[in-house]
Amino acid sequence: MTGRLYGIGVGPGDPDLITLKAWRLLTSAPVIAYPAPEQGDSLARRIVAPHIDGSQIEIAIRMPITAERFPAQEVYDRAAEELAGHLNAGRDVVVLCEGDPFLYGSFMYLFGRMLERFTVEVVPGVSSLNACAAVLGAPLVARNDVLTLIPAPLPEAELERRLGDTDAAAILKIGRHFPKVRGVLDRLGLLDHCRYVEHATMADQAVLPLADVEADRVPYFSMILVHRRGEAWR
């Protein structure tokens, strides 16, 4: 019997925002794997650290995090083979994924490599999208609103096109792209309909008016929520 591979969403940062199913699998599987930068700690592991007792085999999947080299396909190739060794030995493996595995989640790259060889199960997690909406007190959409998820690294013209043709939007992966995004929102007359949050649910969470955001200090884990009516319930 081969083991089963689980990709579990561990939520946006607060250790309490892990589902009961994810917690059960996390605390019972003999092997835990997680993405990690080439140097330093894994954010995904740090989120669930309060739930880990140190008795399990841990595998850090170290990879370049820079946008230019992500996803690093050769890293996922090697990780898939390492995890396959445990699965073939009959050991279940839990792979941690920040937020939700299938919403810009890193686990999808392992999922694609393992699905035809092993039983793979995905456990949804609280996504950054839901977490940011809750932290900001900003319902995302209502009635027949269309919600658009927009990665900030898109070209400026594409950002403007997407924002100009939707009722509500979540702009994510902001980081160094903040000035470009703010300029587009200004041209579209949407600045007063925006809310900004960084590191939602984490210890260093910050909620700021867009005018107070320091462009050179915006982290990757930040998000702007936009609604054309200002409030979804209006």
Word description of this protein:
- By secondary structure, the chain is an alpha/beta fold.
- The chain folds into two domains: 4-126, Tetrapyrrole methylase, N-terminal domain (Cobalt-precorrin-4 Transmethylase, domain 1); 129-227, Tetrapyrrole methylase, C-terminal domain (Methyltransferase, Cobalt-precorrin-4 Transmethylase, Domain 2), CATH 3.30.950.
- Helix content is 28%, strand content 23%.
- It is built from seven helices and ten strands.
- The strands form two sheets. The chain has a five-stranded parallel sheet with strand order 3-2-4-1-5, with helices on both faces. It has a five-stranded mixed sheet with strand order 6-7-10-8-9, with helices on both faces.
- α3 packs across α4 and α6 (156-163) crosses α7.
- 38% of the residues are buried.
CATH superfamily of the largest domain: Tetrapyrrole methylase, N-terminal domain
Number of strands: 10
Q: Sketch the topology as an H/E string, one letter per element.
A: EHEHEHEHEHEHEHEEE
Q: Main β-sheet: number of strands, strand sense, barrel status? A: 5 strands, parallel
Relative helix content:
25-40%
Number of helices: 7
User: What fraction of residues sit in β-strands?
Assistant: 15-25%
Q: Which ranges are low-confidence, i.e. pLDDT below 50, for 5 or more consecutive residues?
A: none
Q: What does the average pLDDT come to?
A: 95
Radius of gyration: 19 Å
End-to-end distance, in Å?
Answer: 56 Å
- What's the CATH architecture of the largest domain? 3-Layer(aba) Sandwich
Q: Please give the domain count.
A: 2
Structural class: alpha/beta
